[in-house]
Design brief:
13 strands, alpha+beta, binds 2'-deoxycytidine-5'-triphosphate, DNA polymerase, domain 1, MutS, DNA mismatch repair protein, domain I, about 350 residues, Dna Ligase, domain 1, binds calcium ion, 13 helices, single chain
């Protein structure tokens, strides 16, 4: 039997903001867009205080303001959250290298071969994360990823939930189908139309019915998932698809040379990332956001992969040539290299 953990940070963006500004503690906090609810933008997250008023992720900021006029509205500071995310993942990596990085605030760990008990490991994780970041997380423990993810969500915040195969009938089956990873709004609608609302009702459907409605592989997936079956291993290393850097000017820029110099500098940074990971690339994409937030991209590709700074810079500048800058001010520029491939090691013997 495997021992899989799913670790999910509580009200993540909001918790980071509360940590660095204690005046926000115990007040409703909403994070989203540029933090101005009179302007366009959606809620990235809200803390538990604000959730009491019905505020949730994905809702327009304007709606959040109506529901909770007393809330503090803050802009998304992605770099700050990414930095805390790295700290929290380092705590997990100190337990085992078998970690799957799922997103900015969640990860799976496979502790099947660790000598320590679940209790000891959970204690190490919770105190480690709290000591490094001052934040809390919720943890699910189960024989597979599917159930571990469901478990971590069952007692938030600062929860710990263990699901075993014995719990499938009593704890999994009463849940709504959308709790199953891989069931999105479209599948949910389709199943609702078949009068299927709970995971238990899904489990009653014969395999051939599911295959008829959803195709062989997804039908089989749903059949297994409804039974809490999931053999998928952790994906511990993802091949990167691209490397990118971007920067927002302190003030919007008209001057071509300033823009060109910034692109050259971003290229240097991207080439450094690319090289230090041992990759070459085939495509360079330039991103330009104007002062009115209109954003354009231009790409250039080569047949052979390239990795040297001059080569990548030449591609970036050929993209810049195709952008009409007349009469416009630039707010942000970014450089991305895509179609990356591991550099072929040149063997030392001939
Ligand atoms: N997020 C976002 N837009 C969404 C959903 C989430 O930008 N539509 C961001 C903000 C969240 C982070 O991702 O802080 C993690 O998402 P979660 O769904 O795990 O939500 P929280 O961590 O905020 O809350 P919870 O305590 O319910 O996990
Ligand atoms: Ca979370």
């Amino acid at each position: 039997m495997r021992r899989i953990l799913h670790i999910d940070m509580d009200a993540f963006f909001a918790a980071v903001e509360e940590k660095r500004n204690p005046a926000l503690k115990e007040k409703p906090v909403v994070i989203g867009g540029r933090g101005d609810p009179s302007r366009r933008g959606v809620v990235a997250t809200a803390n538990y205080e604000a959730r009491k008023y019905g505020v949730h992720s994905g809702m327009p900021l304007r709606t959040a303001l109506k529901l909770c006029p007393g809330a503090f509205f803050l802009p998304v500071d992605y770099d700050a959250y990414a930095a805390v995310s790295r700290q929290f993942k380092n705590v997990l990596l100190a337990i085992t290298k078998t970690m799957e990085d799922v997103g900015i605030d969640e990860a799976f760990l496979d502790i099947s071969t660790e000598p320590d008990s679940n209790e000891t490991i959970v204690e190490k994780i919770k105190t480690g994360i709290y000591e490094r970041t001052g934040l809390t997380c919720s943890i699910g423990i189960a024989p597979n990823k599917l159930l571990a993810k469901i478990a971590s969500d069952m007692q938030k915040p600062n929860g710990l939930t263990v699901l075993t195969e014995k719990d499938i009938e009593h704890r999994l089956w009463p849940m709504p189908i959308r709790k199953l990873h891989g069931i999105g709004p479209r599948t949910e609608e389709h199943l609702k139309a078949m009068n299927i609302g709970t995971i238990g009702q899904l489990a009653e459907l014969p395999l051939d019915t599911l295959i008829r409605h959803f195709g062989r592989s997804y039908g089989q997936y749903l059949y297994d998932a409804a039974r809490g079956i999931d053999d998928s291993p952790l994906v511990t290393h993802r091949e990167p698809k691209s490397f990118s850097r971007e920067t927002t000017f302190q003030e919007d820029v008209k001057n071509w040379q300033t823009i060109a110099r910034t692109i050259a500098w971003l290229t240097k940074e991207v080439v450094y990332d690319l090289a230090s990971h041992g990759y070459c690339a085939r495509t360079v994409t330039l991103k330009i956001r104007f002062s009115d937030f209109r954003t354009i991209t231009r790409s250039s590709s080569t047949h052979e992969t390239v990795g040297r700074e001059e080569e990548i810079r030449r591609l970036a500048f050929s993209c810049l040539k195709r952008v009409d800058l007349t009469g416009k001010k630039v707010r942000l520029v970014g450089v991305r290299v895509g179609n990356v491939k591991a550099r072929v090691e040149i063997s030392s013997h001939h």
